[in-house]
Prior knowledge:
The complex is a heterodimer. Chain A is α/β, with parallel strands linked by helices. Chain A is 42% helix and 12% strand. Chain A folds into three domains: 5-223, Rossmann fold (3-Layer(aba) Sandwich), CATH 3.40.50; 234-314, Ubiquitin-like (UB roll) (Roll); 320-416, Up-down Bundle (de novo design (two linked rop proteins)), CATH 1.20.1440.230. Chain B is an alpha+beta fold. Chain B has one domain (2-61): Alpha-Beta Plaits (2-Layer Sandwich). Chain B has two helices and four strands. In chain B, β2 and β3 (32-34) form a beta hairpin. Chain B is globular and about 30 Å long. Chain A binds chain B through residues 185-187, 338-342, 344-345, 348, 372, 375-376, 379-381, and chain B through 6-12, 27-31, 33.
Amino acid sequence: xxxxxxxxxxxxxxxxxxxxxxxxxxxxxxxxxxxxxxxxxxxxxxxxxxxxxxxxxxxxxxxxxxxxxxxxxxxxxxxxxxxxxxxxxxxxxxxxxxxxxxxxxxxxxxxxxxxxxxxxxxxxxxxxxxxxxxxxxxxxxxxxxxxxxxxxxxxxxxxxxxxxxxxxxxxxxxxxxxxxxxxxxxxxxxxxxxxxxxxxxxxxxxxxxxxxxxxxxxxxxxxxxxxxxxxxxxxxxxxxxxxxxxxxxxxxxxxxxxxxxxxxxxxxxxxxxxxxxxxxxxxxxxxxxxxxxxxxxxxxxxxxxxxxxxxxxxxxxxxxxxxxxxxxxxxxxxxxxxxxxxxxxxxxxxxxxxxxxxxxxxxxxxxxxxxxxxxxxxxxxxxxxxxxxxxxxxxxxxxxxxxxxxxxxxxxxxxxxxxxxxxxxxxxxx
Amino acid sequence: xxxxxxxxxxxxxxxxxxxxxxxxxxxxxxxxxxxxxxxxxxxxxxxxxxxxxxxxxxxxxxxxxxxxxx
Lengths: 430, 70
């Protein structure tokens, strides 16, 4: 997959892309030449920065699309000084946009992190980077080093590797890890109440912080000049699978998924289904994906989520159900092993999905999959089981024909094709 | 009051579903699925007994959300 983002010359969509449309990481000097330095908010104007983020309507780009200003207000104003955690864990196997941004545009991310720290009066920034993304980590570490040479404010910044894993980037997993535990979720308080060392902790995705820095530089009105009211601005997406030019692209939030696929060169082998959001997202049929806008309400209308901006295209001659079973087995293996319904439910679901692939399942298998999907939802400490179930249920809808072909003992030709969706092996770099 | 479960603490003993079948059933793997509705007054004493009987102390009763629902 290519590591560069493509600039759309026709619109003011290329906001983060100028940082990414290059072969080597941007230096601090180049970065400062291109962007005004982040003004350090004085105590009196800290609330103004959060107000500007609020007015801009910035929502998180890590998966949950949560309003950033709400999170910032939740950690500030308490007795204890907050901690800011930059979430660069990017546990979605089909997503590359965060590591591309960290690798090529580290200063934009760090500008955003320092601004966020100033706004909530934090004196500590911790940047968590996926341990399997050494290039991103080296780039962030080098950028932190460059900045410390000219640093003048009392905010400490350090970089911490995050063990690779689907639940490692969950907010309470990160806090657990940074407090000396394993990177698995807890059922403790929300991090904005009690997080790192018991302090209120603001956790933001790396891309979100890049946008935050741009809002500080150019203002909320500029930020809102593209994208829908419910989620203004641009976003990075990772387009993969059966498109001519897979890669990371910057698009206007609300762009039709079909147009995003065309921007990536179109789908020469046809479209059997499109996975949107990530492995916790939803499959969409080709004709629906063509017209659905990539924004929260547009996806909610078809049972989906914007998620981490993953758009993975399964070609018409591939088998979407085989892809689904493969990912379900991987998701089952990503359980932290803590919640019974997740441990047992996801393993059972993966087993049944594989039975369908190999033609050993009957109509009862289909029924069990539906029942287990309903039973497992909402019963984990984190969102893993809910995401897996959303993914499964959308597959049952979109790949009904594939499922029926398998159930009636036919191995569809597509199931022998090489896999489209990546499932990293444990311990291996993605 | 509503029943709440800490899914990490729960180890699937299943005693709760035996004591309070009106509100709790078990999934195919022996883990409880709670009824999300308000616990009716007549069941509250038994619900409290169920909380105390859980070997993992994974169940609790939570006050109703303050905002009026619906």
